[in-house]
Amino acid sequence: MRRAFFALSLSLLAAVLPGCRKTEPPSGGAEPKASASSTLAPKEASHRPGAPWFQGSTEQAFDAAKSEKKLLFLAWSAVWCPPCNELKADVFTKPRFAEMMRDFIPVYLDGDTEEAQAWGDKLNATGYPTVLILTPEGDELIRFSGGFGIGELDRAIDAVKGSRRGFGKAVQRLEAGELAAEDIRILAQSDWEDLPEAEWPPLRRFSTLQKALERCPAELRVDRAMLSAHLLTFVVTGRENEALAKPLADLAGKAGAHLDAILASPETAWAARAFLYFRAGDMATFLFKDRPEDPKYKELKKRWFDAAATIRGHREASVGVKLWSMIPALDFFRFEDPSGPIPDAMKAEIESAAALADKDAKSSFERHAVISGAVYLLRRVMAHDKARAMLLAEAARSDTPYYYYSGLSALENELGRTAEARAWSEKARKNATGRATRMQWIANDILLNAKLGGPEQNAYLRAAAEEFYELATAQADGFLGRNRSRAEQVRGALAPLRDDPAMKELFARSQARCSSLPEAGRKACFAHFDALR
Questions:
Q1: Which end of the chain is more exposed for a tag (fewer CB within 10 A), N or C?
Q2: Could you give the strand order of the β-sheet that contains 140-143, starting from the edge strand earlier in sequence?
């Protein structure tokens, strides 16, 4: 599921709340952990799942893995991140997970701990959550795709741990025509969206997925469904890529077979549930363009709705899963009527689903996982008052209120209430805690105010930039990992002010502090300010 709600109608949810993934699925401005020290600060400790996580540093975890001849199971996460909390609620707190981890050194790497972002660079982790199985030498065996349940994790671990098969070896065997069932399982569960771009350009990803499907035995129906979901997701997200124009055109006529693989049974629909939640509208557009009257579209919609209903009734369906299964109805409606009012019955159904999720989400992990998604759905049906009330209530009870303040800022901005949007964004920035989290929320505030503009904004932006650079230059990984992405965003927002005398002085003063950083951070820091000259 790329994790995750792990893509909550990616482009749409990205505009709603502060995000977790590289593609920033839930951003509000809705959005990646351990250091040399994996030990969490007291305020963060409540977010640590109650599972048998390794209690030393990350380096010590690798040493332990070598000594005990075990693989590492590593989760890179954040306290506020909805899909991270979904994994905590649905997987990491389950007794079966603790049993599975007996054969691993399990490392929980929180993004706000010291040097966490440097570890993000080492692990090529750009989005929260990133879940990996690694050898004691640090070689990556599998990078998990999106949200997964305990059963799916069990199957994937079984494929990896015995023979230490991994994604790279599975691809080699695929290309050599020697694919085994374990290889298929690894390819199906892997994260295809986060593959290194240089090694895995779009055309290679596309052709490799096609080849895997061609060689997947018919009896491996669940794995075939997951591979089909990967391929079709890649299709609808890569439509603007010229290099893929011809292969995508060739695939259009075969897409029905891949959808059949996904919709074949309750088990296959469950395995591909993230695709079914979040790609209904994309697939309708890809297959039918602007022809909602096409009988084949109506048939597909019915099958899709039937699958969504089976997902809601699945024995492992969480509060979040039941909520996300409401999204296809909205997406299909918008395919049929891009700008018309939401029907009253549909609006009432969405409001009821959001209220039920609010009621059923009991634990802190569950609430962190679903409330922002419920707000997203309420906003899509124009139930802004209910969305605002839910955000206010959650901010009052949550230990990460800044996340919901950002949601309030995004909501007010959507309604054209810019003064309120600025005020909530400022409050979110001032309340954010944690090293990387603070940098992200300061960046969010800078981006919003730079975009909105206004006569008073230069002084405000200078003050916020001062806060950002003081924090960035005070920590070794201030320009590494996700912090680097935040710094790039800030640089872009401040570039129009590079000739402002006060801003130039701030840049020069901040750059002087780059010299105190370790080598990797120092180089990135100097490069950042050089680009602002």
A1: C
A2: 104-110, 71-77, 130-134, 140-143
Tokens representing residue 380 in the block: 């899509």
Q: Which residue carries 């759905």 as its tokens?
A: 377
Contact 510, 479 (CB under 8 A): no
Given a contact cutoff of 8 angstroms between Cβ atoms, the answer to whether 473 and 510 are in contact is yes
For residue 140, what is the domain's CATH number?
3.40.30.10
Q: Which domain holds residue 248?
A: 168-262
Rounded to the nearest angstrom, the gap between the alpha carbon of residue 188 and the centroid of all alpha carbons in its chain is 18
The answer as to whether 313 is a domain residue is no
The one-character DSSP state at 355 is H
Please calculate the CA angle 358-362-365 and round it to the nearest 5 degrees: 100
As a whole number of angstroms, the distance between CA 532 and CA 510 comes to 12
Positions in the chain short of pLDDT 50: 1-16, 22-46
- Which pTM was predicted? 0.89
Angle at 518 between CA 512 and CA 523, to 5 degrees: 60
* Tens digit of each residue's pLDDT (9 = 90 or more) over 177-220: 999 999 999 999 999 988 888 899 989 999 999 999 999 999 99
Instruction: Give just the sign of the alpha carbon dihedral 452, 453, 456, 461.
Output: positive
Same domain, 45 and 147: yes
Q: How many domains does the chain have?
A: 3
In a domain, 515, yes or no: yes
**With the C-alpha atoms ordered 467, 40, 402, 495, is the resulting torsion angle positive or negative?**
positive
Long-range contacts: 275-278, Cβ < 8 Å, 24+?
A: 275/1, 275/229, 275/232, 275/233, 276/304, 276/307, 276/308, 276/311, 276/325, 276/328, 277/5, 277/308, 277/324, 277/325, 277/327, 277/328, 278/7, 278/8, 278/9, 278/10, 278/324, 278/327
Report the C-alpha gap between 59 and 343 in whole angstroms. 56
Tokens, residue 120: 């993000």
| β-strands 140-143, 104-110 pairing | unpaired
* Residue 49 neighbours by CB under 8 Å, 6+ apart: 88, 92, 93, 108, 365
Q: Is residue 295 part of a domain?
A: no
Query: Cβ distance 363 to 369 under 8 Å?
Result: no
